[in-house]
Amino acid sequence: MTEAVTAEQEREALNTGTKEVAETHRFDEGALARWMEANVEGYQGPLEVRQFKGGQSNPTYQLITPNQKYVMRRKPPGKLLPSAHAVDREFRVISALYPTGFPVAKPYGLCTDDSVVGTMFYIMDMVEGRILWDQSLPAYSPSERREIILAKIKTLADLHNTDYVAVGLETYGKPGNYMARQVDRWTKQYKASETVHIPEIERLIEWLPKTVPEQERTSIVHGDYRLDNMIFHPTENRVAAVLDWELGTLGEPLADFTYLLMNWINGGISQIPDLKAHGIPTLDEAVEYYCGLTGRSGLHDLYWFYSYNTFRLAGILQGIVGRVRDGTANSPHAAQQADRVLSLAETSWKYAKLAGAE
Fold first, then answer.
1. What is the three-class DSSP state of 12?
2. Any bridge partners for residue 221, and if so which?
3. How far apart are CA 112 and CA 131, in angstroms?
4. Strand ranges (DSSP E) for 75-188?
5. H-helix segments, 234-301
């Protein structure tokens, strides 16, 4: 347990706060200030730009003015995978969700003109609060831990219950066949970034498309719903903003929820010996709570979804390794992800075998 906490603390230190803008991610700050003056309601300079430490994908900046702080997310410069880094899609979904009261940052503007900062970007409000990195929540009491985890689950259920047609997102993704398309997408992205041959990955690429569960529901899905992709209220145990919508679309809500459940399977929560004493719901309690909020009687094909989620994470991390190869990685620690890709491939195949793969 001590090693796990130390690893989480190290991860938090590497990803928390801001730094000087990295040389590879610098841009004309004067051009940005002029664009904000023309396009962001209430903007008043002068403008100071910092870069957030966290994130492996889209460079994210803190924009400081005398009266307000903003956040800018932009496509990274350089060679990119075809469907990655769609910041315009991020802006679209938070713009649709914000008026409903769902916890997202207030959107201010999208710029598709690459001449301003070099790539497409959008501006949103900076939401103040807590980012919780360690899934075991060591700084909180058992009752607070339970409140935080239940708030995380309820917020995801609220997202899945949102009427995507009513909020104007009926064309945010393709209807139906989500899991098959996701398997195909992550297979292609893995192959585009492949650096070494991993036998388990090849078996998964063959097995997953043949065994896709039937899609029963369609909802807005986040795609990377985890504790450190949300901001909790400064003093209350509720979600103030869900961040990082890069992988959002319309799809199978169980892909989101089973990704969340991976914390109980092989994530930080799985390292806790007595969940009840610790205050964190058991996996069965988490499933029951989500099912109650979304009107389900239970979940199906869990081992398949565990295998898929682990395969997808291997694909995401391989993309980071590929960006190291291509010289466009956003983190100096990105090269460390190669060992994790191999471990995830082995774990994914283990769940595939539990789901019936031979």
1. helix
2. 249
3. 29
4. 107-111, 121-125
5. 253-265, 275-278, 283-294
Q: Is CATH 3.30.200.20 correct for 17-125?
A: yes
Domain residue ranges in the chain: 17-125, 142-354
Please write the tens of the pLDDT for every residue from 141-159: 999 999 999 999 999 999 9
pTM of the model: 0.87
For the purposes of burial, counting CB atoms within 10 Å of the CB of 335, is it exposed (0-12), middle (13-18) or buried (19 or more)?
middle
**Strands, E, within 203-264: which ranges?**
219-221, 230-232, 239-242, 249-251
Element (H, E) at 74: strand 69-74
Alpha-carbon Rg for the chain in angstroms: 20
Dump pLDDT digits (tens) for 217-229: 999 999 999 999 9
Q: Which of 84, 109, 83 is nearest to 94 (CA)?
A: 109
The CATH topology of domain 142-354 is: Aminoglycoside 3'-phosphotransferase; Chain: A, domain 2 (3.90.1200)
Distance set, CA 247 to CA 224, 255, 331, 345 (Å): 7, 12, 19, 21
